[in-house]
């Protein structure tokens, strides 16, 4: 170390007021990269690139960082235990301290790594793209002030279309969008009624009116999607979002059916008889998922499923294993032991799987059931096992659902305050 008080055998690290003394030899090969960089500093400028301040008289280096987090990190690099999050400290803040000192997320314990992944995923989904930067919050004018009005206008348009509670205009726009979704769903459901089809065959104007309503709804959804794409910050990120993919799946079938009408030249009744067009028309049911943009309940459900995918996979594995075991045993007891008085409903293991799944979920349609005493005993065990297996992951999913609901309520309340300020102004 060529910079510092000559003759000093040790250096002092002052991290958030906590002082640590290290020998110069230990400093050279210290596990934390930022600390070991002090050994190669040749000038005061090099030192200030590593730390926040330096006292040459006392040979003390000052770091304006979290002292408790550094204490946990220091214990870890000295070999005293495993690295876990500091109590009462945000996971992201602790991870930021780790990055500052030269550690990575892989150094954390597995349980803490999972907490960090979940926290980063939640923040990325709901806050990183939504929160304004420090300059925007403080009202500071960025460089290139001439472009600021256009940026503010784009940001306002984006919030209007993405956040229904961000302004009065956003609430009106969301209400109109919900009305179009409801109207399109009513028309879709009514078009499947036998009386509606009979009336449409006798009265051509009824079919034409339903087509006009469908075209108007599609036009609104298409215009909304195009505007949201134009005002989005990141076009690639916009295309990858699940709700936007669902919007595309809901809109595309209409234009495909229109193109098929133009190129085939078939009449409407003949086209509706086609399996492909009927499938495309039924894909409009995806419009119902568009309501997730405007209702916090559907958003909570989607976020819960995203966070609890491990628990959902675990539940699926439980069911599959139990289904394989009980279906094989039920097929053996009901059909495989006595071929003369065998139960024809359990002729194969795949057929028995249907009985197992409706028994484990306690649905019990009654279309097939065991008739032998061993089979009925097995059925009772199957039902009880299904109740236990389905209940095991429910606690994790419930707690995640409550947490997601509170987070989304907080986010909605934040934008509601923005709406109240706009209304008062």
Describe the structure.
By secondary structure, this protein is mostly helical. The chain contains 20 helices and 4 strands. It has helices at 24-28, 33-36, 44-50, 67-77, 91-101, 110-128, 134-138, 148-162, 168-190, 194-202, 204-231, 235-240, 242-264, 268-272, 275-282, 296-307, 309-336, 349-360, 373-391, 394-424; strands at residues 10-15, 18-23, 53-55, 60-63. A 4-stranded mixed beta sheet has the order 2-1-4-3. The longest helix is centred in the C-terminal third of the chain and has 31 residues, at 394-424. The model is unreliable at 124-147, 269-273 and 419-425 (pLDDT under 50).
Secondary structure: elements and pairs:
Blueprint: E1 10-15, E2 18-23, H1 24-28, H2 33-36, H3 44-50, E3 53-55, E4 60-63, H4 67-77, H5 91-101, H6 110-128, H7 134-138, H8 148-162, H9 168-190, H10 194-202, H11 204-231, H12 235-240, H13 242-264, H14 268-272, H15 275-282, H16 296-307, H17 309-336, H18 349-360, H19 373-391, H20 394-424
Parallel strand pairs: 1-4
Antiparallel strand pairs: 1-2, 3-4
Helix pairs in contact: 8-9, 8-11, 9-11, 10-11, 11-13, 16-20, 17-18, 17-19
In short:
With 425 residues, the chain is mostly helical. It is built from 20 helices and 4 strands.
List the main descriptive attributes of the protein structure presented here.
about 425 residues; mainly alpha; four-stranded mixed β-sheet; 20 helices; 4 strands; disordered C terminus
- Broad shape: flat
Termini, distance in Å? 61 Å
- The secondary-structure element order is EEHHHEEHHHHHHHHHHHHHHHHH
Tell me the radius of gyration.
Answer: 32 Å
Quaternary state reads single chain
What strand line-up does the widest sheet have?
2-1-4-3
Number of helices: 20
Largest sheet: 4 strands, mixed
Unreliable runs: 124-147, 269-273, 419-425
Mean of all residue-level pLDDT scores? 78
Strand content: under 5%
Find the structural class using helix and strand composition. mainly alpha
Number of strands: 4
Tell me roughly what share of residues is in helical segments: 55-70%
